[in-house]
Amino acid sequence: MAGEYKLVDAMTGMAPPPRPPAQARKLDPNIARWFKGSKEMTQGATFEEMVAAMDAGGVEFAHLTAAVMGRVSSPTYGVGQDIPDQLFEALCRRGSELMTRFPGRFKGCIGLDPTRVMTAVRRLEKAVREYGYSGAYIMPSMIGLPPNHASYFPIYAKCVELGLPIKINVGVPGPMRPASMQSPMLLDEVLLAFPELTVVGVHLGHPWQREVIALLQKYPNFYLVTSAWSPKYVPQELWDFANTSRGIRKLMWATDYPLLTVERCAREGWQVPLKDEAKRRYLRDNALEVFKF
């Protein structure tokens, strides 16, 4: 029953700082095809408004993803994001400010471009030690290299060394970037090579959800977040898996705010076809354990 326990958002972003309606941000057409665009995306929102939306939706904690999207329509075969140091530092500070202003409500993972190899490793360590982040995030389609490419491996090793989880996008991306970079089976090699690494697939893995389920069954250190998908549109086979003894600890609820509103995802999250224990693990307990709240 809705409201009997608090939710944990396994993947939230930060809305841009507020701006007047007259200066509302126009969504990239390739993003607008997939998402109508919430008010928070187009006009921005304060941290206080973000937390108020969490409170209204019954969300106790959230795992923040601080990342630069980059150009969603960059060249098909482009590699790397070339994020300048000043932009990376600004991103670190903004996420750190949110975590500091609302202590205990957030843990954060920092977005990385692995193509700079040791620069990315040093950035990850700096985000952890100086800004309080506790995880990493990479979107392979934006990077232009698959997650089993050699450039990712130093980041994986650093995550193991520091005891950090890493989120990696799986499935066809919304932006006009190559889906081949996000085939879930590319993670098979990664999970074999780094059994101590906690890998969290985000954005469902559609249309390869059967492959995702196979990896979830095979690897104890692999999990899935249903971020950026309205819960009512999540394929039934994932709910069927989460209702089993092997799948009950594997799926996590999320919004990917501001792409989707907290209110909608919370309302639909309570309505998913899961048994009571499986629903609680999906909406709360799994994220508490994986991200160590």
Topology:
Blueprint: E1 7-12, H1 29-32, H2 39-43, H3 47-56, E2 59-66, H4 85-101, E3 106-111, H5 118-131, E4 136-138, H6 140-143, H7 153-162, E5 166-169, H8 187-193, E6 199-202, H9 209-218, E7 222-225, H10 236-242, E8 251-252, H11 262-269, H12 276-290
Parallel strand pairs: 1-2, 2-3, 3-4, 4-5, 5-6, 6-7, 7-8
Computed structural class:
alpha/beta
What is the second-level CATH architecture? Alpha-Beta Barrel
Superfamily (CATH H level) name: Metal-dependent hydrolases
- Summed over residues and divided by their number, the pLDDT gives a mean of 90
Helix content: 25-40%
- Percentage beta strand: 5-15%
Task: Please supply descriptive tags for the structure shown above.
TIM Barrel, 8 strands, 8-stranded parallel beta sheet, 293 residues, alpha/beta, 38% helix
Task: Please provide a written account of the structure.
The chain has one domain (7-290): Metal-dependent hydrolases (TIM Barrel), CATH 3.20.20.140. 38% of the residues lie in helices and 13% in strands. It has helices spanning 29-32, 39-43, 47-56, 85-101, 118-131, 140-143, 153-162, 187-193, 209-218, 236-242, 262-269, 276-290; strands spanning 7-12, 59-66, 106-111, 136-138, 166-169, 199-202, 222-225, 251-252. The longest helix is centred in the first third of the chain and has 17 residues, at 85-101. The radius of gyration is 18 Å and the shape is globular.
Give a brief description.
This protein has 293 residues and is an alpha/beta fold. It is 38% helix and 13% strand. The protein has a single domain (7-290), classed as TIM Barrel (Alpha-Beta Barrel), CATH 3.20.20.
